[in-house]
Amino acid sequence: MIEKTANKKAWLFVTPVVALVAFNALIPLMTVVNYSVQETFGDNVFFWEGVKWFEQVLNSERFHESFLRQMAFTGMILVIQVPLGIAVALTMPRKGPWVSVCLVLMALPLLIPWNVVGAMWNIFALPDAGLLGRMINGLGIDYNFTQQPVAAWLTTVVMDVWHWTSLVVLLAYAGLRSIPDAYYQAAKIDGASAWAVFRHIQLPKMKHVLTIAILLRFMDSFMIYTEPFVLTGGGPGNTTTFLSIDLVKIALGQFDLGPAAAMSLIYFLVVLLVCWVFYTLMMRSEKQ
Fold it and tell me: Which domains does the chain have, with CATH numbers?
């Protein structure tokens, strides 16, 4: 039996890219770490503060409220988009000319820049001039996302669902297309119901792509900034002021670089921890 040896020459081509990305990532990260443990009053003069800013952020009621709003938003997004994406993927055709049409239509929202999405929905949902706003108010429902917290939340969630559900759809559809026809033929012979086919064939085969979809949607929704900022500006009040918006307000609005740097590192560690958990679960399921 001939042993196959791994060709590691490909790393010679990848190494420059990895080094460049690491270099571009490390410098901003170290700058943030530097600001998170020091205080400055300008003129490039710094004073050592240790973990003072981390304690201030972790004990801040403002941070707790922003974090809870962020978690609530991310939870709503995942609960809506993952089942909806699976349902849409199941209804899409597997063969024929309509496959290309459906895939293009699903991909269109993903091609629109984030700031354009926020501007589109801002105009679309205006209570006086927007098509959606006028239609809802025409039905006798008092709707004004610029003044009503519930309306602002619902508009932000619907906007994100419209923008990003397509990603879940495309990933779920790819998982469905990878299932061999033999599985469906065996299920048909056994007289399995549609629910049984979904539960025992389609869902297990989609497990890996759905894990990736959930991971990507968690990261995107947990770090969302541009769309809600353009749509609501974090208002009314602080209703839609998520972690990213609050971080920008502290860093640029108040110019509190120390607390902002500490908050950004905590933010980064939370995202990193969740990604590590997802990665561990994926590797464990692969071994099983």
Answer: 60-287 (1.10.3720.10)
